[in-house]
Amino acid sequence: MPRSSAEATPAKEMHARDLTCRSLGIALDEAAPGRAVVSMTATADMVNGHGIVHGGYLFLLADAAFAFACNSYGPVTVAQSAQVMFLRHAEPGDTLVAEARERSRIGRAGLYDVTVTRDGEAIAEFRGASVTLAGNPFAGLT
């Protein structure tokens, strides 16, 4: 029987526990096995010395999408490495969306690409490699 969108999933449970996402207003918009979409509105508190959104916030948003995508299967999965390429800047008031997609998952290793957009225009590209640890804090939800 299909699960309703209101039912708990590993990504929703993880998001509910994520104090960083909650404090920054990062919403989990979509989640499916190997995929996640998150969004946030950039605030004036996120601005660097150049008057634009600090790249660390763009990285954090992409990393959050990556985390929800690679943990969508249930077992604890963490980043092994990640890199980002900044293509354009963001400004306070911009609504930023990060979409993570699984590229490969073999054994305990995963590879994910995340695109951060503003109004549909790519502003950052992120690639993360994951490693699955032991245990499933979301047992029964998958």
What does it look like?
This protein has a single domain, classed as Roll (Thiol Ester Dehydrase, Chain A), CATH 3.10.129. The chain has 3 helices and 6 strands; from the N terminus they run H-H-E-E-H-E-E-E-E. The chain has 142 residues and is of the alpha+beta class. Mean pLDDT is 91; it is low at 1-5. Helices cover 21% and strands 40% of the residues. It has a 6-stranded antiparallel sheet with strand order 1-2-4-5-6-3.
Write the layout of secondary structure elements.
Layout lengths: L9 H8 L1 H6 L2 E6 L2 E7 L13 H16 L6 E10 L8 E12 L2 E10 L2 E12 L10
Antiparallel strand pairs: 1-2, 2-4, 3-6, 4-5, 5-6
Number of strands: 6
Q: Which stretches of 5+ consecutive residues score pLDDT under 50? A: 1-5
- Count of DSSP helices? 3
CATH topology: Thiol Ester Dehydrase, Chain A
> Quick check: average pLDDT?
91
N- and C-termini, Cα separation: 13 Å
Name given to the CATH homologous superfamily: Hotdog Thioesterase
Q: The biggest beta sheet, please?
A: 6 strands, antiparallel
CATH architecture: Roll
Record the strand order, biggest sheet: 1-2-4-5-6-3
Oligomeric composition of the shown chains:
single chain
Level of helix content?
10-25%
β-strand amount: 35-45%
Order of helices and strands: HHEEHEEEE
Rounded to an integer in angstroms, the radius of gyration calculated over CA atoms is 15 Å
Q: What is the total domain count?
A: 1
CATH class category label: Alpha Beta
* Class from secondary-structure proportions: alpha+beta
Q: Assign an overall shape.
A: globular
